[in-house]
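FAQ: What does a ligand-bound record look like?

Like this one, built around NAP:
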Amino acid sequence: MPEEILQTHKLLDRCERELAARYTVHKLHEAADKEALIAEIAPRIRAIAGGNVDGALMDKLPKLEIIANFGVGYDSIDTTAARARNIRVTNTPNVLNDAMAEITIGLMIALARRLPQADQFVRQGKWARVGYRLQSELNGKTVGILGLGRIGKEIALRAQAMKMRVIYHGRHRQPDEPYLYYQNLLDMARDADWLVLIAPGGKSTERIVSREVLTALGPEGYLVNMGRGSLVDEPALVEMLTNGQLGGAALDVFDKEPNVPEALFSLDNVVLSPHQGSATHQTRNKMGDLVVANLVAHFAGEPLPSAVV
Ligand code: NAP
Ligand code: 8YV
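The answer part, i.e. the structure of the complex:
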């Protein structure tokens, strides 16, 4: 009999096909009565594919051994609860680094040159009447990276290709990296023209980009959030973008996504993106393959390709 697993949200077709070829898959997100489904299958579920797993759900699944998250960020899984119950947790690192770094630079250029607005300017026939206003560039500017990890390093490389100076903040100095380290985020924000966020969500980074940090970045400064909405004091961000205390922002993630503060919709100094950093066929399929590979390794008793717990 194939193992029975619980899927918590929609996955890519290829990933769902690969899972269905190996396991009996129960789709929690499609169940009309989720509690009834869980009550029926709970004693047989050994694995979860997907995120959004808290201790309460773990407690309902007494045979749960592993949670294979679709995504490198696993802040939607209570890892403390998983560890306490001897449940393994895996994620999908590295396969999305390039896609993430590409879109980060893309959003930076989009913001600096106001590309979405320029597109609208042409489509609305305004170009025939007046030239487009002058904009700014990335080259010669300093970018501060909050979170010089796997993705942050790829962003740093591409920022250098844009002739930017790279500095970074994290909890640890990385002596092998050539960039200037700031122990203090506030100091880095003060020295940076651009602040790129690519650190994980969760308690340790909650609102780490405070009003004070945004103030240090200042009216000429640009914020780019590719990490998680929880990193930023979002009400302060909206207020400061509106009154010009912050120069601009490119945002791929939001505090209560997919809900985005409506006040941002009318602002010219903002570029909005629907949490699509890794959303390419190429990358999402590799992420799905890694979800499957972790489950396969687990049930074969082999080392997990990308375990976090
Ligand atoms: P990673 O390799 O683990 O890098 C994370 C970096 O954040 C590390 O350099 C770490 O440095 C730093 N960091 C962690 N906790 C910190 C704290 N409390 N204060 C300051 N810095 C801290 O992770 P990754 O693979 O690059 O991914 C990073 C994050 O990007 C993910 O967790 C996810 O939230 C986000 N992400 C978003 C998308 C999207 O679609 N927008 C896609 C993929 C990933 P130290 O250990 O030195 O502090
Ligand atoms: C995904 C992400 O959008 O990997 C992450 O941490 O945020 C993204 O790659 C998400 O996890 C899948 O919906």
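Follow-up question: can I read anything off the structure? Yes, for example: The first strand starts at residue 4 and ends at 7.
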